[in-house]
Amino acid sequence: MLRTKLLITDITEVPREWIFEHYLQLQEKLTGQDVKIKSVFNKNDKTPSMCIYYASNNTYKYKDFSTGKSGDVINLIMEMSDPPLTTRGETAHKIIEDYNAFILNNKDDGIRQFKKKSKYKVVDFTIRSWSNFDEKYWNKFHIGSKLLEFYKVAPLAQYKLQKEEDGQITEQIIKSTNMYGYFRKDGILYKIYHPLVKDYKFIKVQDYIQGMDQLTMKVPFLIICSSLKDIMAFSKLGYKNAEAIAPDSENTMIQEHVITALKHKYKAICTLFDNDPAGLESMKKYKKKYNLPYVVLEMSKDLSDSVRDTTLTKVRETLTPMLKEKLMKQAVIAE
């Protein structure tokens, strides 16, 4: 009698970790750790920017920081397929077929033990004095000491990372002459910025919508930028009728209840993110979910770099008509 392995017919029976391992050709088995690889959607990705992570619901998901794409395994295979798959049902069927072919030709690796791996957290930091290097760096973006103080940016001498796993505490001390702490108005550190580091430029300490503490909500327009540096650069353009905020990152959507509240405070809101694929993808998401128009500044990669590479006057001359078109049209519709 011929014996075959039992084939499956339901996508829920396909191990999510197998889908990531198989289609992304990962070199390690997923058992609860996070993995970072080069983007499968961006051929020009030189530094790994795609993260496969063990989410809070005990399943794996992905986020590609170079393109802004993210989601579950179904989203991943839909995006990767050529020609594209258009529905989740069609995609699930493909995954089931591929998995059945795999289990017919490969030995089952048995039950896998999963344990979410601990991550390093910032537990301490030391603020240092401002230096000539700091002045030279920030002045390139026309950002001075008063603006840095207003937005609660301070230079750091070092910070301590700590994680606990299996009862054992591991610590790391990070020291540098060119890193900065971003603080809330109440003095709580929410982000660390390493401007001259290619990987891990930003260390997130806690959730925070950047610039929220500084909003007056007494002007008609709000701009959602991509970073605190862009917020500060925007403030240097001298607009008296607009102020700005930024999410944790372009790939982090500001929550719906916050956007709803802000829509009641401002006549019009628009996004102004980086003009790279990740920034464009994020602005389209805000447009789709919140019906917020977006402005693409086709100068340097982002607003602050445009200020650095040209002049405040040139950026304002280029940006103003685009902002007027998006914001005034939205304001008229709202009225």
Structural class: alpha+beta
Distance between the termini: 77 Å
Element-by-element helix/strand order: HEEEEHHEHHEEEEEHEHEHHH
Q: How many strands, which pairing sense, and closed or not: the largest β-sheet?
A: 5 strands, antiparallel
Average pLDDT number:
88
Unreliable runs = none
Question: Order of strands side by side in the largest beta sheet?
Answer: 5-6-7-8-9
As a whole number of angstroms, the C-alpha radius of gyration is: 23 Å
Shape: globular
Q: Helical amount among residues, as a percent range?
A: 25-40%
- Please give the number of β-strands: 12
| CATH third-tier fold name of the largest domain | Dna Topoisomerase Vi A Subunit, Chain: A, domain 2
Beta-strand share of residues: 15-25%
CATH architecture verdict of the largest domain: 3-Layer(aba) Sandwich
- When the domains are counted, the total is 3
Number of helices: 10
